[in-house]
Structure formats: C-alpha cells, structure tokens
Design goal:
The protein is mainly beta. Helix content is 11%, strand content 68%.
C-alpha cells in the first residue's frame, strides 16, 4: 500500500516538474562550452617606487578554454572557466634570456546579454605563469601565481557556435623579493562551440 501511495504521489508531481522546466529562463549564452583562442600579449615589469612600465616582450599566444555557464535569468549567466595558453615571449641580453612558456587560469565569469546574439562578460580568477630563464647552456623554469581579470564580448554565430574578443590583465606580484613586480596584458579572440 505504501509503495502504491509513493508511486501515485510521484506521478502526480510530474506535471509540476514539467511546468518548472518550462519556466526555466531561455538564455542562448548558457551551457557547456569549449573555445579555441588566439591572442597577443605583453608581459611587463614595474619597480617599487618607479611609475615606469617595462616590456619583457610581445608575442602571439594560443590555446584553449573550457567553461560552463548557468542561466540566472533570460539575460544573465554565471559560470566557471579554465584555460591554458602557450606563448613565445622572450627577451634576451646576450646569452641571458627570460621567456614565458605558458599561462594557466581558472575562475568565474558573469555574462549579460545585450541582444539576441551578443553578450558582455567579465572574468575574475587565479592565474599561474611559467617563466624560463637561460644563461649559456643552462636553463631553469618556475611558475608564479596571481590574480587575473578580463572583460569581453561574445557574438553568437549559430545556436551552437560563437566568436569572442577579450582583454585580460594579470598581476603576479613581486618577483622573489626583488622589488620588481610582474604583470601580463593580453588581447585575445576566440572561436567556440556551446553544447
């Protein structure tokens, strides 16, 4: 008898569940996504007490990003992302060189639709940059962590594909108690597929 009552109660709830699903916000910028990225970046250093910014170098960056965005309303999404980008930035003085090998970042993002095919978004997260130093025949690498943020715009090409343009900035703080601070500035374009 108890099983029959439970089954009847569960069956009677089905219309309510279906109605709740029908009321879920329709947002074309929600769902799981994967994105290919191509950018241009400039790691820079600043010195304590000095307002000047010095470029380590500038180069193309390339990589990918995965993420998942949840529709909060028909216009707003909240999501998480992780990306990794390779870089060929290098600065040499004779046989002494320092270069960037890659940048990993993870964090969250907020998106706001500004039309049926366009959305603005902001990102904030943790970034880890890998630097390699070489002198003569010896080389060594190390990773530094910091805070990264970005602002971008996304355009839907079809129901499942999109392109994006993003500006990002990361601050990795002081390099090994030297009084020199490291930053990374980047502009990147993306092509993505949303599931």
């Amino acid at each position: 008898m108890k099983k029959l009552l439970v089954a009847a109660a569960a069956f009677s709830c089905l219309p309510g569940v279906a109605a709740a699903q029908d009321e879920a916000p329709e947002n074309p910028f929600a769902g799981a996504r994967v994105e290919l990225r191509l950018g241009y970046e400039t790691p820079t250093v600043t010195s304590d007490g000095d307002d000047d910014i010095y470029k380590i170098g500038s180069a193309v960056s390339y990589g990918g990003e995965i993420g998942y965005d949840v529709a909060v309303s028909s216009k707003v999404t909240l999501g998480a992302y992780a990306n990794y980008e390779f870089s060929s930035v290098e600065f040499c003085d004779g046989t002494d060189c320092i270069g960037e090998k890659g940048n990993l970042s993870v964090g969250g993002r907020v998106g706001v639709a500004v039309g049926p095919k366009a959305a603005l978004y902001g990102k904030l997260g943790y970034a880890s940059i890998t630097l390699e130093a070489s002198s003569g025949g010896a080389s060594d690498s190390d990773s530094l962590g910091g805070v990264q943020g970005g602002l971008g715009v996304e355009f839907a090409l079809t129901k499942n594909t999109y392109v994006s343009l993003e500006g990002a900035y990361a601050d990795f703080g002081e390099l090994y108690d030297t009084g020199v601070n490291l930053q990374r500035r980047q502009v990147a374009a993306g092509f993505g597929f949303r599931f």
